Amino acid sequence: MKGIIFSLLTAITLSACAGKNTPAPVSYNPPSKPVTVIQDTLTYLALGDSYTIGQSVPPEQAFPNQLANQLQGLKVNTPTIIARTGWTTDQLIEAIQKSNIKSNTYDLVTLLIGVNDQYDGLSQENYRIKFEQVLNTAVKFAGGIRDHVFVLSIPDYGVTPFAHGNDAVIGPEIDQFNDINRKISAKVNYVEITGISKLAANDLTLLATDGLHPSGKMYGMWVDKLKAAVGAVFAKK
């Protein structure tokens, strides 16, 4: 009897050792598209002005909320938004300094600021200095991960009824401000939406009822570009 038990134990031990040394066959089919890494919940901070809060449209149509709700395969908290209609870059910086989130970090940060610097006649040199400052703050909010920061270009409001046909002046100035923020944003993600904003010249459905700010439809077009940019960062092969 003892000999039978010893034989059985020996067989089991040899079988276990063989299992360790001989890998089981693995079948692998390469994915047809990147596999999205799903964290429990992504946190999202949106910094900006009226374009970020979605002036004159329902809150759910503002681009940060549309983006949070449409990121396929990613769960996103309700965005934390620091933005107000009329804010210049200086005022955004001041609001951040006075906020209660200074020590927080976020998985995703968007930044869109500068239209009121142009509208208020502030210098481009001031914008250059202050935009770099607020972008560095955005990177800090992203935990120092530059890939998690997404800068949107400034829309061209010169094509809207609000501008009263002054696009020949406003458009080139907006382009100059965008040239500044694009160069400073070289090490983060830059999403160009100014071209979309110009479509409002021939399609008033892209504007809110105030004749100045984007409608939910236009914000949705911005979000399509943002989703592609954000998805490219958070989707890993």
Overview of the structural elements:
This protein is α/β, with parallel strands linked by helices and 237 residues long. It has helices spanning 2-21, 50-53, 63-70, 89-98, 115-119, 124-141, 167-184, 194-198, 216-234; strands at 35-36, 44-48, 80-83, 108-111, 149-152, 189-191, 235-236. A five-stranded parallel beta sheet has the order 3-2-4-5-6, sandwiched between helices. 35% of the residues are buried. Mean pLDDT is 87; it is low at 1-38.
Topology, pairings included?
Elements (H helix, E strand, L loop, with lengths): L1 H20 L13 E2 L7 E5 L1 H4 L9 H8 L9 E4 L5 H10 L9 E4 L3 H5 L4 H18 L7 E4 L14 H18 L4 E3 L2 H5 L17 H19 E2 L1
Parallel strand pairs: 2-3, 2-4, 4-5, 5-6
Antiparallel strand pairs: 1-7
Helix pairs in contact: 3-9, 4-6, 6-7
How does the overall form come out from the CA principal axes?
globular
Structural category is alpha/beta
Largest beta-sheet characterization: 5 strands, parallel
Count of DSSP strands: 7
Query: Mean of the pLDDT scores?
Result: 87
Sequence stretches where pLDDT stays below 50 over 5 or more residues: 1-38
- Helix and strand element order: HEEHHEHEHHEHEHHE
Number of helices: 9
Strand coverage percent: 5-15%
- Provide the helix percentage: 40-55%
- Strand line-up across the major sheet: 3-2-4-5-6
Distance between the ends? 56 Å
Radius of gyration: 25 Å
